[in-house]
Amino acid sequence: MKTTTWQKLVLSASVVLCAAVFFTPQVSAMHIMEGYLQPGWAIAWGAVCIPFLVWGFFSISKSVKQSSKNLILLAMCGAFAFVLSALKIPSVSGSCSHPTGVGLGAVLFGPSAMSVIGVIILLFQALLLAHGGLSTLGANTFSMAVAGPLVSFGIFKLSKKLGASSAVAVFLAAALGDLFTYVVTSVQLAMAHPDATGGFLASLAKFAGIFAVTQIPLAICEGLLTVVVYNVLVKYNHKELETLHAL
Predict the structure, then answer these.
(1) Which spans are transmembrane here (predicted)?
(2) No. of H helices and E strands in the chain?
(3) What is the pLDDT of residues 141-178, one digit of tens each?
(4) Are 187 and 203 in contact (CB under 8 A)?
(5) What pTM does this model have?
(6) 148 and 117 in contact (C-beta within 8 Å)?
(7) Torsion angle of alpha carbons 27, 83, 160, 67, nearest 10°?
């Protein structure tokens, strides 16, 4: 891709990013909201994320050494995930439904790289958009930046191995990765806030059931949008995606 075209894409992404920061409504703005998890759970989820973040830093370093253009692609994946995950639909108390956008980066760079990109996105959203929180950063990172990308990457590789087209593989990866993020979020909320009578399972059924109403159509839309963006990247960055084994 020509430098001027890259500049236009980066400029467009920055404009969208700026708009998301300053014009996203603040009401019900949260992944799992600040203070909604007990300190023990908050610390535990943060500790679980540490190995994935270390793995991610090494993975990103390796990708950037392969080609400097990979850094621009990685930044675009980050901007894509930031904007999509900032679009919020209020859901169960203490959380909300929204696309995640991490499937694209997981397909291109693998799940480990998205753990680092994801925690940066979540940190900025917590500080700038009141979307999530610092005390729940570990839990939100695990659901959106660890679990979701792992499923997206696995589904993409499995689909390709079974002979699916790239479009189908990317769609399934983005959509199912999105849905799995909310399965994990439901588990996290149910573990922290079990139902008074039915316990963990009753609480999980409640959280997952309410999430499903908004999250299933959102996951389908995210899958379709991710396919569109992926096809554009294949058209202009075929060599880079081939090097990343993302075709």
Answers:
(1) 39-58, 70-87, 107-130, 162-184
(2) 10, 2
(3) 999 999 999 999 999 999 999 999 999 999 999 999 99
(4) no
(5) 0.80
(6) no
(7) -150
